[in-house]
Write a structure and sequence with these properties.
This protein has about 425 residues and is mainly β. The protein contains two helices and 30 strands. The protein has a 30-stranded antiparallel β-sheet, covered by helices on one side. A hairpin with a 4-residue loop joins strand 17 and strand 18.
């Protein structure tokens, strides 16, 4: 039984690597914790690609990337099966060269790859189409001096979306790659040394951002990433411990303005993130539980002045937030329903003094707010339209005693309070 799996890998791996690298670029900065893991996976795929470039097709001499293919395999169709005996590939050879390779899933043909050669028998292009004959990917191979160049077109429903080009050195290891959009505009360019990405230039809305990478002593993981603008000013930096991001430095106009340090729990997930200013004093500390934020502390001049605790349900939906002062005394409790504040409880000296219940209308806009005292009796109710108060009712001992009317003029207006008989009790401009 013969196999042409290297032919498929040569086509698919650059595309896979591109997808992950694109994901890393999109995710830089939000959230930046996944940067290390995705970059390392991308590098692994690039390494795998370089290894695949040296694989040989059974019955042929040399690599698929430029060596002459000897016609030692007869004309035939060569099937490949999985462990359960299901057909997964069917490769057709003519004059010892793979011409097509049909790929199957659950016995159904899902795509077909075509292989093209030059007159010397060197493979120069692979094209894969889906069952509707739309192009999925197309990779071409060429030589520029002593360097092998592979360019993979990226398609969606047969329409070209962009391309990823790799340049390889004489050792068949990547030295650089270029990502372009459908119009041929450069989106990013990566540089490699000894199978590791050492630098990347990213173009965002016409602005160039340069990223520089360093690795640990054995070269197995990233130690730091530094970002620079086109003028060479540092705009961001991150440090890693293995696959974990441990710190990020914040910059403005090339000057460090603060930083974020990450602490991890026993399960190797982030337990807290400490945000500091340029002097190193804490500004805030965010706490995490089960991958979601569980609360944060606010600092001023190095002293904690407020804290917020979050309680979520099993689906990570926020159901309650408790605000405390620096001493830990409860100030406010916010209750949530369907992602919106349904009520707010106010406290003084640890005792509940009042509450506010909110009602929402179309577009999640507040339409009413009902105020109650500690005993639960209504003290006031206000009504809103498009974010502005339109009127209200005043209560005493649970009974309605008056109303409030709002009239607007330009940026201000007048609030008029009346008793139940309609008599004006007061007017106040705002």
């Amino acid at each position: 039984m013969h196999s042409c799996r290297p032919l498929s890998l040569m086509r698919t791996l650059p595309s896979i690597a591109q997808s992950i690298l694109q994901y890393v670029r999109l995710r830089w900065g939000k959230p930046w914790l996944r940067t290390s893991a995705t970059v390392i996976v991308s590098l692994f795929l690039l390494i795998t690609l370089s290894v695949v470039l040296t694989l040989r097709t059974p019955g042929k001499q040399g690599s698929l990337t430029g060596q002459v293919q000897e016609n030692t395999v007869p004309d035939a169709d060569y099937p490949e099966y999985d462990a359960k005996g299901a057909l997964v590939h069917l490769t057709h050879f003519v004059n010892g060269r793979a011409q097509t390779r049909e790929n199957f899933t659950n016995g159904t043909s899902v795509s077909t790859e075509e292989f093209f050669y030059d007159e010397d028998g060197k493979i120069i292009q692979t094209t894969e189409r889906n069952s509707s004959n739309a192009i999925i990917a197309s990779t071409s191979f060429s030589m520029e001096g002593d360097s092998l160049v592979s360019e993979t077109g990226q398609y969606d429903q047969g329409n070209l979306q962009g391309s990823l080009t790799f340049v390889y050195g004489s050792d068949q290891q990547p030295t650089s790659s270029i990502q372009k959009d459908a119009g041929g505009n450069v989106l990013s360019q990566e540089y490699y040394f000894d199978r590791q990405m050492t630098a990347r230039d990213v173009y965002r809305n016409g602005d160039l951002v340069r990223e520089r990478y360093t690795y640990n002593d054995d070269g197995t993981s990233i130690r730091s990433v530094e970002q620079q603008d086109a003028g060479g000013n540092i705009i961001g930096a991150a440090r890693f411990d293995g696959n974990r991001g441990i710190a990020k430095d914040l910059y403005a106009n090339g000057i460090k303005t603060g930083g974020i340090d990450f602490l991890y729990g026993p399960d190797n997930t982030v337990a807290s993130a400490i945000v500091s200013d340029a002097t190193g004093d804490p500004v805030s500390v965010q706490h995490f539980r089960d991958g979601a934020i569980a609360g944060y502390d606010v600092y001023s001049s190095g002293e904690k002045i407020e804290s917020y605790d979050y309680v979520s349900n099993g689906r990570s939906d926020l159901i309650r937030t408790t605000k405390r002062n620096g001493n830990g005394d409860v100030l406010e409790v916010y209750n949530f329903q369907n992602g919106k504040i349904s009520s707010r409880d106010l406290y003084e000296n640890g005792l509940k003094t009042a509450s506010v219940e909110s009602t929402y209308g179309p577009g999640d806009a507040v339409t009413a707010a009902v105020y109650k005292d500690a005993a639960g009796q209504t003290t006031a109710a206000y009504y809103f339209d498009q974010g502005r108060a339109t009127g209200g009712d005043i209560y005493e001992n649970g009974a309605k005693t008056g109303t409030v009317e709002y009239a607007y003029s330009g940026a201000g207006g007048t609030a008029t309070m009346r008793d139940l008989a309609g008599n004006v009790l007061s007017k106040e401009d705002f």
